Amino acid sequence: MAGGDLFGDLPPPSSAPQPKTLKFSEPNGGSSKDSKTTDDKEPSASSPPPPPPQAPPPALKSALKRSKPSSQEEPKPEVALSGKRLRFKTSTDASEAQVIEAMKKIASHIKNPSKFSKASKLALQLIQAGSVKPATSDHFFAILEVAMSSSTACNEASLRGDYHALFSAAQDAAEFFNNKQKNLLTTWTIRAVVANDLLTDDSFVFSKASGRVKEAISSLPVATKDDDDDESATLAGQVDVENANEQAGGGNSSSVDEGKVEEPDPFGLDALIPSTSRKEDRMKGKKEAIKTKALEEEEAKNFLRRQREALITCLETAARRYKTPWCQTVIDILVKHAFDNISRFTSQQREAIDKLWASIREQHIRRKQGKSVSGKLDVNAFEWLQQKYANEKISIRHSVGGSGERHCEQWLG
């Protein structure tokens, strides 16, 4: 080995393949100083470009997770369906004439007991839809008036619930009624709502209805002799409202004046005698004021009379439930309250309250003595079974030949 070639036996440096790296250029077109390559030669233009870096694989989702609501997804175009869709109508877009026509139809059917349930539900929908307004209130009140044309129908077992629902909801439309209509609605509510609550099986509702009756009794004024006379005349059928209005208007002279037919003034002579026309206007104004006052007084009397009658109905309804044990204490308090305020009722109504209180007091004394309402001694379930089976023949051998003479005195003590 000559010349001191120490590396002659080693392989050349280019024999080992080295990985190539990309060479990035600067924005100005020059090569990057920091980039490192293992080859001094740049790749030729004919070589294919390197593949882009692959994105990381998506994370696996649990099978228990659900996709988010469709609200976050892209809206899908609506597809027109050839079939019919089921839609619910949430509002009533009826005209005033249509509402009035519907009210007239309901009023024509609601008097029929077989159609009352359906007609009352339609009337209830009118209230809930806000169809009862000042322009339609008179027509709706006619529905209530026809429904209460019978004073006993509202307490029938088959119609009781529908009457209760209708007149409870009618309170929402009371603001559109005049004073006379409000008074009638008040008395009808006592019959259709409060009296029906006294027939319930819920002790809380029964006690609440009893409290309302007590409050109504306490709000009544003391009855006068005129109230007794009016009641007697009403029961005898001798009350004539038209005659009473004529008497309140000024007797025969008022009736003659009201019966005059005013002729038109073709020549305009009324303007030449203003004094006479002013006197007539004053007289007419006074007569109208007297007539209006008389009508208001008559309406107040009728309202008190109807209210007292409705409260008597409630007292009688509650007294008939005295056989129910949990009702007895409440009825005792209610009838005692009516008896303490008996002066607020008319003479014939006072007689009815006296009879109710005497009956309730007698049954109350029996309860204190341990007797039931029927007069028999109250017994518990064990005592009743003891009395029933004391003399029964029970065989311990069934059909094996038992004579059945053995008593069960040992078993029941």
Characterise the protein shown here:
- The protein has helices at 96-109, 113-128, 137-147, 160-169, 179-197, 203-218, 225-236, 241-248, 252-259, 274-319, 328-340, 347-368, 381-389, 409-412.
- With 413 residues, it is an all-alpha fold.
- It is flat.
- The chain contains 14 helices and no strands.
- Helix 10 (274-319) packs parallel to helix 12.
- Among the domains are: 96-197, no CATH class; 225-259 and 276-368, no CATH class; 381-412, no CATH class.
Output the keywords.
413 residues, mainly alpha, 14 helices, OLC1v1026494C1
Number of helical runs?
14
Helix share bin: 40-55%
Task: Report strand %.
Answer: under 5%
* Average residue pLDDT: 74
* SSE series: HHHHHHHHHHHHHH
Specify the biggest β-sheet. Answer: none
Look at the helices and sheets and give the structural class.
Answer: mainly alpha
- How many strand segments? 0
Q: What low-confidence regions span 5 or more consecutive residues with pLDDT below 50? A: 29-43, 75-83, 86-91, 250-261, 400-404
Q: Judging from the principal axes of the Cα atoms, what is the shape?
A: flat
End-to-end distance, in Å?
A: 138 Å
Radius of gyration: 48 Å
Protein name: OLC1v1026494C1
Region (Disordered): 1-91, 239-269
Biased composition (Basic and acidic residues): 33-43
Biased composition (Pro residues): 46-59
